[in-house]
Write a structure and sequence with these properties.
about 500 residues, alpha+beta, 7-stranded mixed beta sheet, 5-stranded mixed beta sheet, 12 helices, 20 strands, about 20% strand, elongated
Length: about 500
């Protein structure tokens, strides 16, 4: 049996969410066959299988967040005994329950030694040292109808020789021990069971905790709320405990101690429409972490410049008519990107980063131009690698390809790493300007606002012109106000007269 562990598909990836399985237990798989889609902090990635064989178990459910290095699937390659197909959490629970049933001891084994349970995909190595069984208190003695114990106390030697009771099979009735246990002391008086009902021994706390089926976030929630998962009635699929189950127990426990006014206050209905809780994960969590780190690490400065872009809009119309751009989308963003590339070559310090560990400013003589894209999964910032080397038609194709791939959810982690400077087009949402936050590792980001018809003074006359607002945020540790102002001024000048791009290129 071979296990495929979740790999690090991107630099520094620590976890990913299982989006969709392409195989199920019992399916044959080949090397490099796509078996699962995972969602990392920024992208949805398809993972191929590194083994050939038959799927024995899916070790993570769809929607479950898995740490890098954790096994997610086991494949029987035919080199050993075949294992029964097991699916998801419920299958793992069933396999564990079956494996924990003791096997008959061999004739040459000591009577106090028993086989260790075997989990799916693992086996006891030949010649491996066996652990000594832990001492366990004996099963409760029989109780008469009067409630008093009828079993005599046992000698310490007999209690020590009694085998350990077998843990229950995931919430079921505990299996009987191989040798009848001898009670150590009389049990406390308990009410007699009702006629026709059979009493089952209660499992210990450790066994009850092991029998609980709950995902790690649900377990953490239970710890935070002080809820014992063994006391929660599961309502999820395959007997799993959900967040709602934990909240129900916590609310019931806290409601018991409330006073009447408090309970009445809680009974007030919520506003019409209620509330919706959205888990913070994937792109949203990565964006939150990156923006928080950026806002509280780099001292941001934002400058604004209102620009007459009538010349740019005329140039866009002329470019669309050229054969070289026949199959390419040409928009004002294309000329904004070109202006940023030209200005970055004129002021290299703009295209740099602050290295806190080395206490150095790293000036990059290449431009990986990031283009912020709004997608159904959230904000993504893929970048055009070595954008400074591309011709205008190639730059247009690269920007269009990035946007299309991002909207389709196929952006790869490599496409979003290594950016050096970013453009965010807020004008497509009808917004004039904003104060964009820096992408971590970058020192500047330019926001391009909507193009509107406004009155503008030209040669002493007020005339209608196409006007937009540019907003440049930069890291004040790296970029002084003068440098940021010169960079923004030059971009504005090139958008007012696109011929300057040729003169400064």
């Amino acid at each position: 049996m071979k296990e495929f562990k979740l790999p690090d598909v991107g630099e520094g990836l620590t976890e990913a969410e299982i989006v969709r399985w392409h195989v199920k237990p019992g399916d044959p798989v080949k090397v490099n066959q796509i078996i699962v889609e995972i969602e990392t902090a920024k992208a949805v990635v398809e993972l191929p299988c590194p083994f050939e064989g038959v799927v024995a178990a899916l070790m993570a459910d769809e929607g479950e967040t898995v740490d890098v290095g954790r096994p997610i699937i086991s494949v029987d390659d035919g080199s050993g005994p075949a294992a029964a197909p097991v699916a998801g959490t419920a299958g793992r629970a069933q396999a564990l329950a079956e494996d924990m049933v003791p096997e008959p001891a061999a004739a040459d084994e000591p009577p106090t030694e028993k086989r260790q349970p075997v989990l799916v995909g693992y086996g006891v190595k030949p010649g491996a040292a066996r652990r000594r069984p832990r001492k366990s208190s004996a099963a409760p003695p029989a109780v008469s109808s009067a409630g008093a114990s009828t079993a005599p106390p046992a000698a310490p030697e007999a209690a020590a020789a009694a085998p350990e009771a077998v843990p229950p099979a995931w919430g079921g009735v505990p299996a009987a021990p191989a040798v009848p246990a001898v009670p150590v002391r009389p049990a406390p008086v308990r009410p007699a069971p009702e006629p026709g009902l059979q009493e089952t021994p209660a499992a210990g706390p450790a066994a009850r905790r092991a029998a609980v089926l709950a995902k790690p976030p649900v377990r953490k929630l239970a710890r935070d709320l002080g809820v014992d998962l063994a006391a929660v009635s599961p309502t999820g699929p395959h007997g799993t405990i959900t967040r709602e189950d934990v909240h129900a127990v916590a609310d019931a426990a806290s409601g018991a101690g409330r006073t009447a006014p408090q309970a009445a206050e809680r009974a007030v209905p919520a506003a019409r429409g209620g509330e919706e809780r959205i888990p913070i994960k994937g792109v949203r969590r990565a964006t939150a972490q990156a923006m928080t780190a950026s806002a509280f690490t780099a001292p941001h400065v934002t400058e604004f410049l209102q620009v007459d872009v009538t010349g740019t809009m005329e140039a866009v119309a002329r470019l669309r008519a050229l054969p070289d751009f026949a199959e390419v989308k040409v928009s004002p963003l294309l000329l904004v990107a070109k202006a940023v590339l030209v200005a970055a070559r004129r002021y290299p310090m703009i295209n740099s980063t602050w290295d806190e560990v080395a206490q150095e400013i790293v000036v990059k003589h290449y431009v990986n131009l990031g283009i912020a894209a709004a997608t159904p999964r959230g904000l993504l910032v893929p970048n055009v690698k070595n954008a400074h080397e591309l011709s205008l038609p190639d730059l247009a194709r690269a920007i269009g390809s990035l946007a299309e791939t991002a909207r389709a959810g196929r952006t790869q982690p490599a496409d979003m790493s290594g950016g050096t400077i970013t453009i965010t087009n807020v004008g497509v949402f009808g917004v004039d300007a904003g104060t964009p936050l820096l992408n971590p590792g970058e020192s500047a980001i330019l926001a391009f606002g909507q193009v509107r018809d406004l009155p503008w003074v030209v040669d002493g006359q007020v005339v209608p012109r196409r006007v937009c607002t540019l907003a440049l945020s930069f890291d004040h540790r790296v970029i002084d106000g003068e440098l940021g102002s010169l960079f923004l001024r030059d971009i504005g000048a090139m958008l007012e007269d696109p011929l300057r791009m040729l003169a400064w290129s």
